[in-house]
């Protein structure tokens, strides 16, 4: 019984670690709040591909190493595939080895966060601050010489536009 209680307390302690320190350039959101761009499911399905709808509107995850955006290195901006809000700059992108586009920070004010408990522990979910579309999650294992954060983003949630000189 003591072992079971100790296990329960340790599990509770580890699952309750604060996500406050994880929040950098993101803005807290509540999934029930109204975003600037609101559409019905039917409207989203008309403008998004099947894969984009799955990720952005159903909070899905694309398979690792499946996004061509993993290899983008040229200067530019990554936009929300649903509403065209600028979310990330290439200069903040890095290869995390996880199989998803990763950034150490987003464009200030354009990324929102929410608490995700779907896997039985707390994660910080990242969403588009304009339409509420699911982007991915934020973790504390990013480059230590920058923010220390890793925004692990589904490529299907993004559109890339190179910067013209």
3D structure, described in words:
With 165 residues, this protein is of the alpha+beta class. Helix content is 17%, strand content 26%. The protein has three helices and ten strands. It has helices at 2-15, 41-47, 50-56, and strands at residues 26-28, 76-80, 86-89, 93-94, 102-103, 111-116, 123-128, 134-139, 150-153, 158-162. The strands form two sheets. Strands 1-6-7-8-9-5-4 form a seven-stranded mixed beta sheet, with no helix packed on it. The chain has a three-stranded antiparallel beta sheet with strand order 3-2-10, with no helix packed on it. A hairpin with a 5-residue loop joins strand 7 and strand 8 (134-139). The longest helix is centred in the N-terminal third of the chain and has 14 residues, at 2-15. The termini are far apart.
Q: Helical stretch count?
A: 3
Helix/strand structural class: alpha+beta
Please trace the helix and strand order, writing H or E for each element.
HEHHEEEEEEEEE
Proportion of residues in β-strands: 25-35%
Largest sheet: 7 strands, mixed
The low-pLDDT segments are: 4-25
Strand elements, count: 10
